[in-house]
Amino acid sequence: MSGEKTTKQVSEDEVTETPEESSEGAAPEAKVAGNDKTPSVEDLVPGLEDAIQQEHSLEERLAAATAELTAERDEYKDRMMRALAEAENVRRRAERDQRDAQTYGGTRLARDLLTVYDNLARALDAADDSLRESHASFLEGVELTQRELVNAFAKHKIEAVVPEPGDKFDPNRHQAMFEAPLPGAENGSIIEVMQAGFVIADRLLRPALVGVAKAAQEPAEEAPADAVDDGNEPPAES
Question: What is the 3-state secondary structure (H, E, C) of 79-114?
Fold first, then answer.
């Protein structure tokens, strides 16, 4: 009997807890049971939210810097394209000016020499047969001088504009000095050439001075004789 009692007492002693042991062992369970709030990420990993915010802030700064650099790149690209276009335009203008200088550089001199050509032409036109016989060598020298002048004009693309009678009047190359009716001539056609014109390449140095045909006015039709009012009234009926 004493042995069974001792065994029961030992078992009860092992199961029974002291107030101190009970309070110490139950404290953690009470704390966990009383905490209904789910633990946050910050509670689990302290400083993680700050790290995430810093990362987001870094991404925003990088995006802003990228946008700024992109805008700066586009601006410099636009400036470069404009500069290249302007340089190309300058190059083309320089080439055009150079061609114009080569082609039209002697325009002023050519205009001044046209009067020399006109005087030589007048001298040759004024020479009659008797003068040509008596001064043949002199007139030959005048003709040679005029021919050399024409050859010099041709080297610089200067050509004479000499229309023929009957040609259509061209206001871009001709200048009308007078208009006159001419039987059989078409209205607006050239009837006389007073002075030759000249062009240099495709530009007009001076127009040719011409006379232009004008349409003749048709005479008014005469009224029939019986329609003329003689002032006499018709006799009254009786």
Answer: HHHHHHHHHHHHHHHHHHHHHHHHHHCCHHHHHHHH
Q: What CA–CA distance (Å, rounded) separates 180 from 188?
A: 10
φ, ψ of residue 157 to 5 degrees: the values are 60, 35
Contact 96, 192 (CB under 8 A): no
Number of continuous H segments (helices) and E segments (strands) in the chain = 7, 6
For the chain, give the mean pLDDT: 79
- Give Cβ neighbours of residue 131 (< 8 Å, ≥ 6 apart): 139
Q: Are the C-beta atoms of residues 197 and 206 closer than 8 Å to each other?
A: yes
The pair of three-digit structure tokens given for residue 6, joined into one six-digit string: 């001792």
CA distance 135 to 138: 5
pLDDT confidence band for 33 (50 / 70 / 90): very low
